[in-house]
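Notes to self, Enolase-phosphatase E1:
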Amino acid sequence: MASYDIVLLDVEGTTTPISFVHDVLFPYITNNVSDFLASNWNDPALQTHIRAIADQANLDAQSAISSAIPIDLLNDTPEEIRSKILANIDWQMKADRKIGALKGLQGFMWQTGYKNGQLLGAMFPDAVMAIKRWCEKSRSVYIYSSGSVEAQKLIFGYSDHGDLSGLLSGHYDTKVGAKIESQSYLRIAGDIGVASGRVLFVSDNVSEIRAASEAGMQTVVSVRPGNAPIPESELGVFKTVTDFMEIPL
Ligand SMILES: CSCCC(=O)C(=O)COP(=O)(O)O
Ligand SMILES: [Mg+2]
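result:
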């Protein structure tokens, strides 16, 4: 592996167990969303997320996605809107959809859970050790996740290893582009102001790794308990680690 200046990390399956996302973060949403919408309906910040979910639902309905029900924010009653939004969140979460509107609402809701102590972001200990070592050795660490920037700041800010936010130089979510498109990685390198070859991207998802590699980034696949197995056709194509401290500096 060549030297690198920037480390770009995925979250779920990389710094954080998939089980934490699926068994803690997602149930927090499904268990609380109905009450949360009822209690906070008139909050302008919530209404911004509602509009984004409705816009996405209308796009999905136009694209004939079978579970999508159009939401008419001007003519539906508030009760109709609320119940359609709840149905929409339910199917999107069951499908584990990595789409900006849903991820935005999730991050907004998790804020309450982290701040009141119900949620504590789970980190693999070796990921935290490696992030600290990279910072000590003058590498800058950035995050790129399907989770919203707000959700990323929360999981690292309220982590089971304390507040890690000071170790991170920046965050990207899918506003910069889809994680399986190489253009997204070129945009991130451009935004940081570095040649893509000076960036090391670590993720559990081989399609993301392939896209980053096509953009010229160096890559490592994160192999963690509970992650999806690497497809047989991809075995041996990319460097893999089970512990971040194995990644050379
Ligand atoms: C970053 S906070 C919650 C995780 C999440 O919702 C998610 O979709 C993570 O996807 P990733 O791109 O980090 O695998
Ligand atoms: Mg991931």
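- The chain is about 45% helix and 10% strand.
- The chain has a mean pLDDT of 97.
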